[in-house]
Amino acid sequence: MNWNAFRKTQTAGYVFIVLGILNWSGNFVAARGLAGTVEPATLNLLRWVLATAIFLPFGFRAFWRERHTVARLWKELTVLALTGISLYDMVIFLAGRTTEALNMSLIATLSPLFTALVAQFIFKENIRSSMYAGIAVSTLGIVLLVTDGDFSRLLSMRFAAGDLLILSSAVMSAVYNTIISKIAGKISQVTLFMSLCFFGTLYIIPMYLWETGGQLLLPEFTPDLIWSLLYLAVCASILCCLFWNEAVQIMGAPKAMMFYYTLPPVSAAIAWVVIDEPVNLNQILSGTIILAGILFALYGGSPKIRRQEKLIDVQPSEIGY
To answer: 257, 321 in Cβ contact below 8 A?
Structure first.
C-alpha cells in the first residue's frame, strides 16, 4: 500500500492521533518547568514565531500555490487560529488565576462532549449513544484521577469567574476540531498549518502588547528556555498540529476528541520518565477506566451498525461518530 492510500485509512488516523497526543502531552510538562519564568503571551508568541520560522521553508510554496483557497477560507482559518493557537493557552492561564486546579481539570473534560454535541446538533452528524456512554466512562476516569480517588473533594468545589474561561476553552476545542473535520479536502495539510502559523502569530501580538504594557520586552534566554522553546515549536506545535489535524480529518472530530482523555495519564507517564514524578495505583486505575471509555465510544454499539459503517464507501470526514 502506498503512502497516499494509507494516510486515508482509519488505521492511519489512529497512528496520527497517537503521535499527536504524544507530542501534545509533553507540552504540559514543558509548561510546568517554565511556570513563573515567562509570561504566557510572551511564551506563546516566541513559540509560534519560532514554529513559523522553522516551517516556513517547507510550507510557503504550498501556501502561495493555494493562496486563493486561503483567501476563500479566511473566516474558517481565522476561527481556527483563534481557538487553536492564539486564545486557547491564554484563556487557560487567566483562568488559573481565579479558579482551582480541580475545577479546571473537571471542566476541561467537557471538550469531547461539546464536540459531539456541536457535530450532532449544528453540523447534523449522526452520533451513536455509545459515544456518549464512552464519554461518561472516560470522564469518570478523569474525576478519579484529579480527585486522587477522594470523591468527597467534589463537595468542596467552589466556582469562580475563571470557571467560565475554562468552559470557553472547552467550547473552543469543540469548534476547532469540528471545523478542521469540515474543511477536509478543501485545503492541503501543509497550507492549513502554514495559514494557522501566520494567522495565529498575528493574533497573539495584541495579547503580548497588552501583557507588556505596549513595550517590546523579552525574557532572558537561558539554556532551559531555549531548549523548551525548541521543543514547544517543533514537537508541541508543528508535529502535534500536523498529526492532530490529519487525524481529525480522517476520523471525524467526535471520534478523535475521545483521545483527549488520554492527555492526563500520558502527561503523567512522560513526567514520570522526564522529571521523575511518581506514578501511583490510582493513576493506573484511572488510566484503565479512561481507556475503557475510549474503546467503548469507538467500538460500542450494535454489530449490525458497525458492519453497515464498514460497507459505506464515503470519505471519513463524512461519517458521523
So the answer is: no
